[in-house]
Amino acid sequence: MIEIEDVPQLRSPVLIAAFEGWNDAADAASSVVDHLARVWDARVVAAIDPEDFYDFQVNRPLVGTGDDGMRRITWPSTQLSVCSPPGALRDVILLRGIEPNMRWRQFCAELLAASEELGAELVVTLGALLADTPHTRPIPVSGTASEPDIADRLKLEQSNYEGPTGIVGVFQDAVTQADIPAVSFWAAVPHYVAQPPCPKATLALLGQLEDLLELSIPLADLPEEARAWERGVDELSEEDEEIGEYVRALEETRDTADLPEASGEAIAREFERYLKRRESDDD
Predict the structure, then answer these.
(1) Are 250 and 132 in contact (CB under 8 A)?
(2) Model-level pTM?
(3) Are residues 76 and 107 in contact, defined by beta-carbon separation less than 8 angstroms?
(4) pLDDT in tens, 10-61
(5) N- to C-terminal Cα distance for the chain?
(6) Could you give the percent of the chain with pLDDT greater than 70?
(7) What is the pLDDT of residue 259?
(8) How far is CA 232 from the centre of its chain?
(9) Which of 50, 158, 225, 233 is an S-S bond match for 199, by CB 3.0 to 4.6 Å?
(10) CA–CA separation, 248 vs 237, rounded Å?
(11) Residues 201-227, buried b or exposed e (16+ Cβ, 10 A)?
(12) What are the φ and ψ backbone dihedral angles of 82, each rounded to 5 degrees?
């Protein structure tokens, strides 16, 4: 079982989870949790013992030198952190890990027990996948929710996907089976620029979290990093005629498929986030 450090009583905590690996195209989802840990000054309170869950020939430990000059081994693991976002009425638990190589059900059971011990009242899982989407358009984010009121508020639909799943899907199912409200967001990363990072996809997921939690999240340098990323891919498509033609074909397909109502709703939501962020900055 996961041993948790002494933690003060958390206020209606929401758990936000992301895992490196198959579920995390371009590291877009795990980068969200990393960002939240930085801007909300999260404190690690627990880590899962990796011995039972990871093949160290696949996820090798890392060796490095600490601030004291001593050489240390860092083992692949999954950690739980807690933080209190400024101005929020509830605390946040961050779950940041690596997709395990074995014993997935035991892995999820231990994480679920730790989540319940910390009092998680809502679980949000994040993922990212490679898709036929142009980098020049807003990153599509799909979502599902176990609670109808959340699905209605965020205009989410139940997923009809059938096929292989990763640890995000398995953990999401375990949470739902435990009768804990659950939400899942997935960002679609342009498959022709699959190498991490993809700050534009990370920003898209953060926007969905802002809508769900109804609070403004400090974005730091992410908007500029996203613009720089897009400019870099623009240059790549200009230099390679084949890629340029492919991007234009994706743009045409995307623009034809998108409904005006959906675009209007997306613009309205983004404007609301902008206003909330301004109000937060003024405070």
Answers:
(1) yes
(2) 0.88
(3) no
(4) 999 999 999 999 999 999 999 999 999 999 999 999 999 999 999 999 999 9
(5) 42
(6) 90
(7) 47
(8) 23
(9) 225
(10) 10
(11) bbbbbbbbbbbbbebbbbbeebeebbe
(12) -125, 150
